[in-house]
Design a protein that fits this description.
about 100 residues; mainly alpha; 5 helices; about 0% strand
């Protein structure tokens, strides 16, 4: 519930576009990333996922592998290699979710 309120507050603060108001592509990407994060946060609290996530959080091997994978990403090099591919996947997922919920 708190994630719905957070998303509502986010949308209220930045306003929903009217049909005459268009977002730049960078603003749209940010909107899709924000949507993805809000939905992920909300779904992580789902009772069905909560137990599995708690198990994963205590799995040392999984956490080490995840740390290693995240170590390959670099926010300063968003436009190159794996960073670009991961970013594009995140934006596409956020766009799909945004369009589904809209």
């Amino acid at each position: 519930m708190k994630y719905i309120l957070a998303m509502s507050a986010f949308l209220f603060m930045f306003g929903m576009p009217t049909q005459s108001q268009a977002y730049s592509s960078l603003e749209q990407e940010a909107m899709y990333i924000a949507t993805l994060k809000a939905v992920l946060d909300y779904k992580m609290e789902d009772e069905k996922n909560l137990k599995r996530l708690e198990r994963l959080r205590s799995d040392r091997r999984f956490n080490q592998k995840l740390e290693k994978m995240l170590g390959e990403l670099n926010n300063k090099k968003v436009k190159f290699g794996k960073n670009k591919k991961v970013y594009d996947i995140l934006v596409k997922a956020g766009k799909d979710i945004y369009n589904t919920l809209d």
